[in-house]
């Protein structure tokens, strides 16, 4: 995520990296209970993501079905951790950082390659998660599903997953034609 903090470390503005890179402006953190307090099973985020997958199903039904199936499993594999800072994973290879001196990228989530308990596959920084909008939290879930899928196809970093995820959450996705979608897939050189 891209996070701006005040001198005491309090979050002033935040956005999920995939959406920030696509041009979504930083916004003030949520006041009061964060998204993780709405439902222990990520219901709000899942509903929002399922709506995006309905759009994907119109142009790529098989992939949408695979992602929807994975979405049903992923909430059981997430652990929200409070009072910690996740170590940066060098798989994003993002091309820019925010200009503001009090803003930086911070690791929001980590997908562990080896787990002892499936509930620990994804570790999410609860402070950042709680400050994000439901849309951004849903975009994190889709990012993890997409990145996992692309990783199995041989991708070694998250760049293509972030671009695909940003496309999925873009305002224009609902108007994207099947030929335009497949052209974007070819442009990204994704073997799906």
Describe it.
β1 (2-5) and β2 (11-15) form a beta hairpin. The chain has a 3-stranded antiparallel sheet with strand order 2-1-4. 30% of the residues are buried. The chain is an alpha+beta fold. The model is unreliable at 32-38 (pLDDT under 50). The chain is globular. It contains 7 helices and 6 strands; from the N terminus they run ββαααββββαααα. 43% of the residues lie in helices and 12% in strands. The chain has helices spanning 17-21, 43-59, 61-73, 126-131, 134-152, 159-169, 178-188, and strands spanning 2-5, 11-15, 78-81, 103-105, 109-111, 122-125. It starts with a strand and ends with a helix. α2 (43-59) crosses α5 (134-152).
- Average pLDDT metric: 88
- Order of strands across the main sheet: 2-1-4
- Count of helical stretches: 7
* Quaternary: single chain
Shape: globular
User: What's the story with the biggest beta sheet?
Assistant: 3 strands, antiparallel
Distance between the termini: 27 Å
Strands, count:
6
Order of helices and strands: EEHHHEEEEHHHH
Task: Report the C-alpha radius of gyration, rounded.
Answer: 16 Å
**Relative strand content:** 5-15%
Q: What structural class do you assign from the helix and strand content?
A: alpha+beta
Helix content: 40-55%
Return residue spans where pLDDT drops below 50 for at least 5 consecutive residues.
32-38
């Amino acid at each position: 995520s891209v996070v701006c903090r005040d001198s005491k470390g309090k979050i002033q503005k935040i956005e999920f990296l995939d959406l920030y890179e696509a041009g979504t402006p930083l916004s003030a953190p949520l006041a009061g209970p964060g998204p993780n307090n709405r439902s222990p099973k990520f219901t709000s985020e899942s509903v929002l993501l399922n709506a995006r997958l309905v759009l994907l199903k119109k142009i790529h039904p098989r992939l949408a079905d695979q992602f929807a199936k994975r979405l049903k499993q992923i909430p059981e594999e997430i652990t929200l951790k409070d009072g910690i800072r996740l170590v940066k994973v060098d798989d994003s290879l993002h091309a820019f950082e925010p200009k503001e001196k009090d803003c930086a990228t911070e690791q929001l989530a980590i997908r562990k390659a080896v787990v002892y308990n499936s509930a620990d596959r994804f570790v999410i920084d609860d402070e950042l998660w709680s400050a994000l909008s439901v849309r951004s939290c849903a975009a994190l879930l889709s990012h993890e599903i997409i990145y996992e899928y692309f990783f199995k196809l041989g991708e070694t970093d998250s760049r293509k997953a972030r671009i695909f995820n940003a496309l999925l959450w873009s305002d224009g996705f609902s108007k994207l034609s099947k030929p335009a979608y497949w052209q974007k897939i070819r442009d990204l050189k994704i073997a799906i």
